[in-house]
Amino acid sequence: MATAPVILLPPSEGKADGGTGKALRIANLSFPELEEHRATLRAALGAAMKGKEPGRAKLLGVKDKALAAATSANLYVLTSPTMLAIERYTGVLYDALDVASLSVRDRKRLNKQVLIFSGLWGVVRPDDMIPDYKLKMGATLAPVGKLSTWWREPVTTALASTVSGTVVWNLLPKEHDNAWAPFSPVHMSTKPSAVFSVKFLDEDKPIKGERAFTTVNHWNKLLKGALVRFILETGADDPNALAKFRHPEGYRYDRTLTEISPSGTIVSMVRPAR
């Protein structure tokens, strides 16, 4: 029996406040082998949150009331209430995924197949109970440096047994994708059988008889959320399965635009020119 595909997602910039779960139970988080690195980051983040406002604002990318709230969340990350990661993360991608409307079967698939990359936790599963926090994967935090680079080896090692020989749908933006290197020489023995990433394109009017496209940025997260639902519902483990994907905005799989890169296969979903 084929192994179910693994789906890699970023977290969301926005997060739900509060929670009804007990304070973080470190031992219960997925991938406990990452705890040493998580502990190092918690300590570094706690120290940074006691620093001056300009430094905190630069690190977290927010200011004023948002900075005060983010600082508080980070200082009390070990004692504040928790909620499921899939409910903690909000935003366009997660709204489009609409986890509350998934069937029982697909909710189970979600918890098993989806991995969420995080600046503070490295990787979590949707059913991990986590507190509110703020720390981007692309941030640079003293003394560890840029988080995506710092996480790369421990995250790749932690995911090795999960992705080995498995189809992976990599829906990570660049800064999160930089925290995973399954095709590095030291990890070749545990590499996935295939890695597929997806780009969305709007087709423009032809230029000198050649097809022309604009890469979609604004709707990218919404489209990926809908795509995750499709993969969970169908078990899609090959780009050709996307031929049945029908997005309300009109994007369709175009196999003629498939690209092969050192990090996997890039497939295109195209909306025809209007």
TrEMBL record:
A biological process (GO) of this protein is: response to hydroperoxide
Q: Which Pfam families match?
A: H2O2_YaaD
**PANTHER family documented for this protein:** PEROXIDE STRESS RESISTANCE PROTEIN YAAA, PEROXIDE STRESS RESPONSE PROTEIN YAAA
GO CC terms in record: cytosol
Q: What is this protein called?
A: Unannotated protein
InterPro entries reported in the protein's UniProt record: YaaA
